[in-house]
Amino acid sequence: MQYEAKIITKEQQKTNTWSGGTTTQLAIYPEDADYSMRNFTWRLSSATVEAEESIFTSLPGINRIIMILEGEIVLEHQGHYKKVLGKFDQDSFSGGWTTKSIGQATDFNLMMKEGCQGKLEAVILEKDEVKTIDFENKEGFTNSVQVLYSLKGSITIKFPDKESFQLQQGEMAIIRSKSGNMNYEIKNISISDCELVIANIYHQ
After folding, report:
1. What is the pLDDT of residues 12-61, one digit of tens each?
2. Measured between alpha carbons, how far is 171 from 7 in angstroms, rounded to an integer?
């Protein structure tokens, strides 16, 4: 196979409480990294912001991308800018900034140590819709990872060698290419629209 694929089930995800609500760790790399030790290369999580106002944890040396999954918030980056985020809107900023969140929402959060790069994309599939997903390596990076998170509904993922597996709502697939660029298909197998978040992450 020219790829590796791993499913993270809902039972494997860890949820913790923070000052503004709860955070569920969806995936972390390396797998034995500890968020509290800040010894990760990248981390994906989903947080519920329940307090009307909260201050984000200070994370110097870590870049963050936040995408809103439900609700609406205002992010105020002290000394920088303010941004209103609705569903599937996103913001990229330094974890070392002082950031205040106003409003209630559920978000999807990518944290990256310096030297790691990434981007987030929301994808909506109609019933029975099939979409081709491109997996591209990025020049200058040793590792390329693509992560699919099923926010709503379920999909089938079909690779070029015809192997396929299902991703249920709330689950995450982590895909690594062994031999450069490739593409694969995803199909909505739900009875209604399916909502996904795709993260592309590049690191050494």
Report:
1. 999 998 777 899 999 999 999 999 999 999 999 999 988 899 899 899 99
2. 7
Q: Between vectors from CA 154 to CA 153 and to CA 157, what angle results, nearest 5°?
A: 145
Q: Rounded mean pLDDT of 55-78? A: 96
Find all residues with CB under 8 Å of 49, minimum gap 6, and list them: 20, 21, 71, 73, 101, 103, 104, 105, 106, 107
> Both tokens of residue 39?
């010894």
Question: If DSSP codes are grouped into helix, strand and coil, which group holds residue 120?
Answer: strand
Burial class of residue 22 in the structure, from the number of CB atoms within 10 Å of its CB (0-12 exposed, 13-18 middle, 19+ buried): middle
Residue 122: beta bridge partners? 197
What is the secondary structure of 24-43 as a DSSP string?
A: EEEEEESTT--GGGT--SEE
- The whole-angstrom distance between residue 143's C-alpha and the CA centroid of its chain comes to 17
Of the candidates 141, 87, 101, which has an alpha carbon nearest to the alpha carbon of residue 118? Answer: 141
pTM of the model: 0.95
pLDDT in tens, 98-128: 999 999 999 999 999 999 999 999 999 999 9
